[in-house]
Structures are given as C-alpha cells and as structure tokens.
Amino acid sequence: MSRGDAPLRTAARLSEQEYQRAAKVILDRIYREVEIQWHPFLGVGRDIYAPRIDIAVGPFAIERRRFEEQYTELLLETRPFIESLIERHNQNIDAAEQRASFDTIAFFNLNARCFLCIEIEDSGSRKHCLGNLVNASALGRIGLLIARSEEMLRTFVRQRVYLRFLADVEKNSFRTDNTLVLSAQQFDECLQLALLGRGASPISESHESGYVP
Known about the structure:
Layout: H1 6-11, H2 16-27, E1 34-38, E2 53-57, H3 68-77, H4 79-92, H5 102-106, E3 114-121, H6 126-139, E4 140-147, H7 150-168, E5 179-183, H8 184-194, H9 203-208
Parallel strand pairs: 3-4, 4-5
Antiparallel strand pairs: 1-2, 2-3
Helix pairs in contact: 4-8, 6-7
C-alpha cells in the first residue's frame, strides 16, 4: 500500500470531534475564517431552532449582514478545491441523477450565512441526517456532507434524491442543489490536493503531531 494511503486509514480512527479539529487545522491554511461548532443564530433568541454546525468557513453573515460578493470571490480564489469536491461528489451519485457543476452551485443560495457549511456524520439516524442536509444547504453558499461510513454516504445520497424527486413531481420540497456529499476519505483527498506546495500535513498527521488548536 502506498504511503499516501496511510493518512486516510489513520483519519478513520479519529473521533468525530478530533476529526473536526484536525480538518479545521487544514482549512485554516486555505481560508481566513474557520469555526467548529459554529452557532449561526447566536443571539437571535430562544424561540428559534438553533443548530450548531460542525465546521463553518466564513465570513459569517450574522446580524443581517450579507457577503454575496465575498463568497463569489472565495469561490473563484479556491476554484480548484471546490471543483475537486464537486468531482468526488459526482462519483457518489447515481448516473440518472443530475450532476453538480461549478456553474450550477456558484450562484445558488446567494444570501447564505457562511461560505462553507460542513456537517460530519458517523452514525446518526436518518432523521438526523436529513436535518444535516437541510442545514448545510440553507446556511452555506456550499454545503458539504462528510460521511464517515458507507451507510451514512448512502443515506445522504438517497435523501438528496428523495428531495429532488418531490420537487420533480411538484410536491412541497427543499432544494439542495448546493450541497455535496463526500466520504471522509474523499474530503481528506481534496484537502491534501488543495495544500500541495503549502507544506501542511494531512488530517491525521495534523492531529497526531499535536498541531490542533
């Protein structure tokens, strides 16, 4: 087995919280604002459902602020990274499903609360996963669902298909065109590709070396 496969095996042994922290270390090398366990509605009040997002990349559009142009600039600045995410997402979906493209998601959900909304799932219930899908799509200019098991990957993919089917047959639905589904291994690969030449370590090495905020 090649040396490049080793970080992926090790990353699979991290707890979900450790994986979040390790992924943040890598994302910090790509983007200026990265938060874990982010509260998108902090200060709004107790009368509204207030999810916590596993990892969010800013700037953060809270208190009625909007960053449409800034998000577009980030999309263009990190286009190779975004396109690598799209490519791997398309590997996971059925051939009959509409494939994602940079042009399709670049101008979807313009009034997002963050640039990337990332939800990481190990073994949640289907209802919990559906909530992750809705949150990632609604709050992020791009939503990322990172599945740490084959079962979770299949669940996320099927739920996207279900919501699109409801829309296609003119039922009340929720569009998730801006949300990509990747395995943790695929996400790790994309991060490593984005960091070529930057001197950063893969996810597992960042955690094991103690370089975790």
